[in-house]
Design a protein that fits this description.
The structure holds two protein chains of two kinds. Chain A is an all-alpha fold. Chain A has helices at about 1-15, 20-105, 130-140, 145-150, 160. In chain B, strand 1 (about 130) and strand 2 (about 135) form a beta hairpin. Classes of the chains: A mainly alpha, B alpha+beta. At the A-B interface, helix 2 of A face helix 2 of B.
């Protein structure tokens, strides 16, 4: 008991290493501060990295979508070109056939909603520009023949036309100098 | 005479005397290290806010708001809630310097002089984050954060560059004047200036895909 009391009294009165207490506290605070700085640096760095990765992903997705839309636009352009030419060809064929039939029968029944019963021929000059273009396109005064030239498969020449016809008196017929109408 | 000799030779309370000499120095150094650590943390945060401000400028958002939102956690309210008025008092208490030698704003700052009469931040100016709630001190951070785009989004450069100048309040007593560049409402502040630069990715795009510039109009009158 006496020894314990002596030790306690010695601890109470001893002055060695008093500064170590405050030094330890200061060291702890300084180390904590360094850790705080390091921690904040790591956090901000990771946040910047995460944001950069998210932005890069979003940009890559938007770029891919834009490229696909651009490809679709190219395809739409080509399809519009092809469709326009097909429709132009179809309209040309239809109008040409109609005008051919009209010139074949040489009658224009309707013009501007009025009838011209006594007129059997109309000068093409007052007609529309499209008609004049078609005239130039056909380039002949024989529209039926032009139609036959344009679409020969619709009216194939028969064997009777092609081969010379044998006659009973033994003389060969004159060879056809031009095509003859089969009608 | 014998008493003086006795005092000189006595070792009683020697540690107390030594402690009285060393303690202020050590306390000053310790507080200075703590304040330096806080400044470095704030420097990190301002760097991050500059990055986010540059990103906001890049994507067409408000860079000032983005920077202030990042700087809100380092905006102390210990003095701010008591005396939030930002007064034009620099040049008067900046470590005895003349106005032309002011440390704030930094020489690298290219933007206009920060407006000192920006008024009192109100709680209605606080930023509300969805799913989080009101961001503390964000209204005050809006006043203490200054943003300037040195290379804005619509410039000819292939990058966006934004400067962020943040007025960091130094709250550690007895050492804050060491780091301070100016005072706001009597409280020492440090102007932290950070610059961030982000590339415009769409300028130098090497994906090799040719963009379709326009859809050609099909003219039925003249033909293809």
């Amino acid at each position: 008991m006496k020894r314990i009391l002596h030790t306690l009294h010695k601890l109470h009165t001893e002055q060695t290493a008093q500064g170590m207490v405050f030094g330890a506290i200061s060291l702890f605070l300084m180390a904590s501060s360094v850790g705080l700085v390091h921690n904040s640096g790591v956090i901000t760095s990771r946040r910047v990295q995460a944001q950069t990765a998210a932005d890069a992903g979003a940009y890559a997705g938007a770029l891919s979508s834009a490229n696909i839309l651009s490809d679709v636009a190219w395809m739409n352009d080509g399809m519009a070109y092809i469709y326009y030419n097909l429709m132009r060809y179809a309209v040309d064929v239809t109008v040409t056939r109609t005008v051919t039939e009209m010139r074949t029968h040489n009658k224009w029944y309707l013009r501007n909603g009025k009838t011209y019963p006594d007129t059997d021929y109309i000068d093409p000059k007052p007609l529309s520009q499209e008609y004049r273009n078609l005239e130039r396109l056909i380039g002949t005064d024989d529209p039926e023949q032009a139609y036959a030239d344009a679409m020969p498969s619709t009216r194939p020449p028969s064997d009777r036309q092609r081969l010379p016809k044998p006659t009973t008196n033994g003389t060969s017929p004159p060879s056809p100098s031009c095509r003859t109408s089969t009608t | 005479m014998s008493k003086l000799a006795e005092l000189h030779s006595s070792t009683r309370a020697q540690a107390l005397a030594e402690w009285a000499v060393v303690f202020p120095v050590q306390l000053f150094i310790t507080l200075g290290v703590i304040q330096l650590a806080l400044v470095l943390v704030a420097r990190n945060v301002v760097s991050y806010s500059a990055h986010m401000a540059a990103r906001a400028e890049l994507v067409g958002a408000d860079p000032h708001k983005a920077a202030a939102m990042i700087c809100s956690p380092i905006t102390w309210s210990a003095y701010g809630e008591r005396d939030v008025r930002i007064e034009p008092d620099f040049g008067l208490t900046v470590k005895g310097q003349k106005e032309k030698d002011l440390l704030f704003p930094r020489p690298e700052w290219q933007g206009p002089m920060p407006d000192r009469n920006t008024g009192v931040p109100s709680s209605s100016d606080d930023t509300v984050l969805p799913g989080w709630g009101t961001l503390d001190h964000s209204a005050l951070a809006l006043l203490k954060t200054h943003t300037y785009a040195t290379s804005p989004r619509d410039s000819q450069n292939d990058y966006v560059e934004v400067q962020v100048l943040y007025e960091f309040e130094l709250i550690i007593p007895a050492v804050n004047w060491v780091f301070s560049t100016h005072r706001i409402a009597g409280h020492p502040h440090l102007g932290l200036l950070r610059t961030a630069r982000l590339p415009k990715q769409w300028v130098n795009d090497d994906s090799g895909v040719e963009p379709h510039d326009y859809i050609k109009t099909v003219d039925t009158r003249s033909g293809p």
